[in-house]
């Protein structure tokens, strides 16, 4: 690879997605390292970063998506949408969220193109999943806000207030998966004085939450126990993840059907296929539907509603890894991120999900 690389920052095309992958200050540090950065005009506007801020930072503004995707490396936020598949080519490196376990068409298009595709959500380091964590943090906080809102009668919910009132017990919330997103959701819900039960398969994690009081009660993830908690819940937040794989289905359809009418489920794990059986992907334009009398909110890009905070958080986490990627794509700091290369699936868990596609 040459020392100076051309990096493209396209506008996001997913429904109501306003995040941008690199802020102007991140662009300045990439340009400082001797690289060219092509930014699609208007790419940062929705997040509060105007075109002038990018040109002041040393970016070259280009008018259309095709010019940005002609760069050697494209750095994005959300998984490419079908109208972007035509930009894939075998000498392109893509760095973005991919969530391939829930995206069979995208997976096929990436494999067929010969592209090198690195996924934020499978990059691992000693802290866990450092490029998933910032968005999980934001989505978790948002889940508490959204869940509380959807429980209002005005939004089709049962009319239950999270914190209850004197003489009236608080709402019951169950959080499935107490990782980054689940912990932030639990903290937000506790902040609203709901009663929160946290469910996980990891006993050590439950022990830590039990000790530090993030939740009112902890529950190991076993179907009968989960069913009992879900039946009583006003709100269930899904946030279980097995990195790279389709999300485990922890809440089955019968459990959802057992909930009181007007209860709410928010399945954040929908980007990996969902951990609640009745969840199917929704958009920021049409975020909810009702099934078994239960309001379902299953938006795949929840942080897209908070683009200023989310872009700054994502850009801060992505920039050092992007600089590593353009210097040495085989560096250990990118461990686990490469999902697709040279016409084959590289990540072992993703490859297991698609046994009919070539694997490296
Ligand atoms: N919808 C959105 O906009 C959005 C945004 C950000 C993150 N997410 C998603 O939220 C999910 C959680 O992300 P995270 O960063 O918190 O992951 P994480 O790895 O930090 O936490 C996942 C937790 O799930 C637990 N788990 C695994 N299997 C389980 C099971 N069978 N039952 C109960 N718990 C189980 C793990 O032990 C872990 O504690 C991911 O799918 C992520 O992609 C969605």
UniProtKB/TrEMBL annotation:
Domain Alanine dehydrogenase/pyridine nucleotide transhydrogenase N-terminal: 8-139
GO biological process: one example: L-alanine catabolic process
This protein's UniProt keywords: NAD, Nucleotide-binding, Oxidoreductase
Protein origin, superkingdom: Bacteria
Keyword Nucleotide-binding: yes
GO CC annotation, single: plasma membrane
Catalytic activity: L-alanine + NAD(+) + H2O = pyruvate + NH4(+) + NADH + H(+)
Residue ranges occupied by any Alanine dehydrogenase/pyridine nucleotide transhydrogenase NAD(H)-binding domain in the UniProt entry: 151-298
This protein's pathway: Amino-acid degradation; L-alanine degradation via dehydrogenase pathway; NH(3) and pyruvate from L-alanine: step 1/1
Region of interest (Disordered), residue spans: 1-21
Positions annotated to bind substrate: 19, 78
Function: Catalyzes the reversible reductive amination of pyruvate to L-alanine.
Similarity remark: Belongs to the AlaDH/PNT family.
Protein name per UniProt: Alanine dehydrogenase
Gene of this entry: ald
């Amino acid at each position: 690879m040459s020392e100076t690389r051309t990096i493209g920052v396209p506008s996001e095309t997913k429904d109501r997605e306003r995040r941008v992958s690199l802020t102007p200050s991140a662009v300045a540090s990439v340009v400082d390292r001797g690289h060219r950065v092509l930014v699609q005009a208007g790419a940062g506007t929705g997040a509060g970063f105007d075109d002038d801020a990018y040109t002041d930072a040393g970016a070259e503004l280009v008018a259309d998506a095709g010019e940005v995707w002609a760069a050697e490396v494209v750095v994005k936020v959300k998984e490419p949408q079908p109208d972007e598949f035509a930009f894939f080519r075998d000498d392109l490196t893509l760095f973005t969220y991919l969530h391939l376990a829930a995206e069979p068409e995208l997976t096929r298009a990436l494999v067929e193109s010969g592209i090198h595709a690195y996924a934020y959500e499978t990059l691992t380091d000693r802290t866990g999943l450092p490029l998933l964590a910032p968005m999980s943090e934001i989505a978790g906080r948002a889940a508490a806000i959204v869940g509380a809102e959807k429980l209002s009668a005005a939004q089709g919910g049962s009319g239950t207030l999270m914190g209850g009132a004197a003489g009236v017990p608080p709402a019951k919330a169950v959080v499935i998966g107490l990782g980054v997103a689940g912990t932030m959701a639990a903290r937000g819900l506790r902040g609203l004085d709901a009663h929160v039960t946290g469910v996980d398969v990891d006993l050590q994690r439950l022990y830590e939450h039990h000790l530090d009081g993030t939740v009112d009660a902890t529950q190991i993830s076993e179907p009968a126990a989960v069913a009992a908690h879900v039946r009583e819940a006003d709100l269930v937040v899904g946030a279980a993840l097995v990195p790279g794989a389709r999300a485990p289905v922890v809440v089955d359809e019968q459990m959802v059907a057992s909930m009181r009418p007007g209860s709410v489920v928010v399945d954040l794990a929908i980007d990996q296929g969902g951990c609640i059986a009745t969840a199917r992907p929704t958009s920021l334009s049409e975020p909810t539907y009702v099934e078994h009398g239960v309001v379902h909110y299953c938006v795949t890009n929840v942080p897209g509603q908070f683009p200023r905070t989310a872009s700054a958080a994502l850009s801060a986490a992505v920039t050092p890894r992007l600089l590593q990627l353009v210097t040495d794509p085989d560096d250990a700091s990118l461990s686990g991120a490469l999902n697709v290369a040279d016409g084959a699936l590289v990540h072992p868990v993703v490859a297991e999900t698609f046994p009919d596609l070539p694997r490296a």
